[in-house]
Design brief:
With 355 residues, the chain is α/β, with parallel strands linked by helices. It has 11 helices and 12 strands.
Length: 355
Amino acid sequence: MTVSAGGNRTINLISTCANSKGISGPGKVFHNLVRGLEKIGQPYVVNMALNATHLLWVHDDLRALVELPERGTMKVLGPNLVVLPQHLPTRQHFADSLYLLPSPWVVDLWRLEGFAQCPLRAWAVGIDAGDVPPRAQVPDDAPVLVYFKERDPEELERVLSLLRRHAMRHEVISYGSYAQSDYLASLRSCSFVIWLGRQESQGIALQEALATDVPVLVVDAISLFQQHPPDKPRALFPPRLASTRTTSAPYFDERCGIKVDSLNYLDDSLALMRERLPSFEPREFVRERLSLEKRAREFVGFFEELEDEAALPAIQQPEGCEPQSSYRPRPGTRLRLKAFRAAQRLSERLWRAQA
């Protein structure tokens, strides 16, 4: 996949998701960014040699992160490389680099964890409203769609019990057990969504619901440790982060629906949702804040920021010089995963020793 233009402004996109269908979160980040770059006419190449262009994006490939060119490139890193800074496989200083994280609360978390190797910026990938056209008007008694993702099953039962008490028809869709087409079909036929999910760095699936013009009632996850089963967050996050404020919907305002931080407020919120349904404009929020073009332009602007800070002259490719052979991301083998986990443990020990 290549878009050719003035070589000095071409961005080399390094991603293991380049050949995926983009169903996963990281896959959608890559493919939606590419579509945004094409919409704004930004030239790019995919998985070329790391020094093949002046502008380099390393999306999710840890090997590429270790092999970054020291000079001659402006580098934008992330947002799908690691979860926490201590999971990075190296403590090198990232010269001429800027690190992307999907939302402001994640930036705050990394700063709290002491990351200072390069500037951090919050950036969300765009959502293609054309992919999820607005649904037609639904009947007043259309069912409520409950989206359930890695929360305590007892919380789900409380939500369903409340819906039954109000005689509200409902459907449950659980993370990891549905096809994208099924999800979109459910969105087209529901009155609104009750979102009962764990914390999200961006929340692409929720934003796809908003893009179809479906209002959402978010039962917010305000802690990393609301994720279920509880051994998952305990294995990933140190206990000192228990008080860190998170959210299930980092990009959300009054046009999108209602957000509550406790199930104790759900009863009153259900009545308010039904009363205000005609006034919500979630699709307008997505088109204004999260369009493919807007987020792609912001992404390109990070390279301009780096170049302004470095005050470097544009690097010209010598006439007749061909780029080096394409970069080939290594496949996700079991051996590589074991090596990555070992590197994580070593990096964390070094981090704690030097803290």
